[in-house]
Amino acid sequence: MAPHTEQLTRPAVRLTGLTRSFEGRTVLDGIDLELPAGSFTALLGHSGSGKSTLLRAIAGLDHRVAGGGELAAPERVSVVFQDARLLPWRRVLDNVLLGADGKAAAARGRAALAEVGLGGRERAWPSELSGGEAQRAALARSLVREPELLLADEPFGALDALTRIRMHGLLRALWQRHRPSVLLVTHDVDEAIVLADRVLVLDHGRIGLDLTIDRPHPRSYRDPLLGEYRERLLAALGVTEDRA
Predict the structure, then answer these.
(1) pTM score
(2) Which CATH number, 3.30.70.20, 1.20.1250.20, 1.20.1580.10, 1.10.10.920, labels domain 87-145?
(3) Where in the chain are all domains bearing CATH 1.20.1580.10?
(4) What does the alpha-carbon distance between residue 192 and residue 210 come to, in Å, rounded to a whole number?
(5) pLDDT digits (tens, 9 = 90+) for 188-223
């Protein structure tokens, strides 16, 4: 089910002229970007291209961004990292509820754990979870805050291939159910194509390619009709597939 048309015309994130430099090196060079409310966008780029820097700026975690324009984002923002970042001395439910108190929050935490397939594991310790389960708990923690914007910084990068495929389906299902705007940072072109409806390529501090993926969901890595998107994205990244 696609987001309502009116929802997609209202931007959840608006950036104009966003700039960030580190020790004289410009990483973000006057970025202009809008993310419609309820949209699912992936961000690709080489290591060091500024993907995580852009994510941190949108999340309000980097206050040294410059530019005379605008940086507008929703009030309720959740961030999911590659590392689940669960506190080892707190049980799973307590990790999910971190910063949230009360019976209503506890009920939302249990419901979120059930949504990600961890119902009944509320009292488990983080050390008892697999890598995939830990990331499920991290997703549950983000859901408890009922975010308008979910920022995901390579959340599946440390998982094995089969677990990643399962997590892709889970993330897409959660997005369809809750409808936050999603910005997913990834190095994986196929992951971007399968999950997102729009893929951006960050190149030399600017958006080098803004590509709409016009294929219905669910998508398969084996779908030959996705090949054209893959080639365009790889070309934007300066990668040529060896067909020999």
Answers:
(1) 0.90
(2) 1.20.1580.10
(3) 87-145
(4) 12
(5) 999 999 999 999 999 988 999 999 999 998 888 888
